[in-house]
Amino acid sequence: MSTTRPRLRTAVRAAGAAALVVVLAACGNNAGSAVVVGSSSVSDATISSQVDEVYQVFQDNAKNVQLQGASFDRGAATASTVDRLTRQLLLEEAARREGVTVTQGQVDQIISQTIEAQFSGDRTGLEIALAGQQNIPPSQINDFARAFLLTDALGKKLAPSGDGTAQQKAVVDYLVKLGDEIGVEVAPRFGTWDPAQAQLGPVTDDLSKLPGVESAQPIPAG
Questions:
Q1: For residue range 21-68, what is the model confidence (pLDDT) as tens digits?
Q2: Which stretches in the chain have pLDDT values below 70?
Q3: Is the Cβ–Cβ distance between 115 and 121 less than 8 Å?
Q4: Residues 6+ apart with CB under 8 A from 109
Q5: CB neighbourhood size of 139 (10 A)
Q6: Cα Rg, the chain, nearest whole Å
Q7: What's the pLDDT score for residue 119?
Q8: What is the pLDDT of residue 135?
């Protein structure tokens, strides 16, 4: 693959670093929704289905060299799935506002190039790598590639004279402002968002630490 093109394998390694950075509220999202971004949402069922699909990849390929020494972690898979799908909703809205487009042809091309260059033409190899390293199920590879391409294109538009680091920062800054404007909520059962670390933290068992309830009083005993 040409080094001048964005590489999906780079996204495999960097997806965690190119993290979603938004202000997430812990309370008030729609019933049955894991994530709400503006008027869009992701259901609990969608999260569960995708995590189950990743689990199945581990089950079906336990002896594959790419998964040797790795074990399926449902909690980690759930958290990364929530992060990824929230980021996708934000990216789609950012792209719409900025007039950034990615065609299905571009998505197909980067996937096929990655399979040929990195996995000797074996799509299963890519599926196992993404499931094992990033908890991305096979059914979501197209959307993952699309999100990567949107991030790349958006960065080039927002910081055309900047290098990759500057472009990535421009995208992050844009998503922070966008999330603050349209509202992003993640159900507290999936964790609490730490904007300073740009990552989803563990579920808290201290109600006083949930956003919006700092002044709540303890429930009287009896």
A1: 333 333 344 557 888 888 999 999 999 999 999 999 999 887 887 877
A2: 1-31, 69, 191-222
A3: yes
A4: none
A5: 11
A6: 19
A7: 93
A8: 95
Instruction: Write down the pLDDT at residue 167.
Output: 95
Q: Mark 88-127 as b/e (b = at least 16 C-beta within 10 Å).
A: bbbbbbbbeeeebebeeebbeebbebbbeebbeeeeebbb
Q: Which two tokens stand for residue 66?
A: 């790419």
Q: What is the DSSP letter of 219?
A: P
Q: By the 8 A CB rule, do 37 and 86 touch?
A: yes
Q: For residues 175 and 25, is the Cβ–Cβ distance under 8 A?
A: no
Dihedral of CA atoms 129, 135, 137, 143 in degrees, nearest 10, equals -100
Q: Which two tokens stand for residue 154?
A: 């958006």
Q: Whole-angstrom Cα distance, residue 116 to residue 87? A: 27
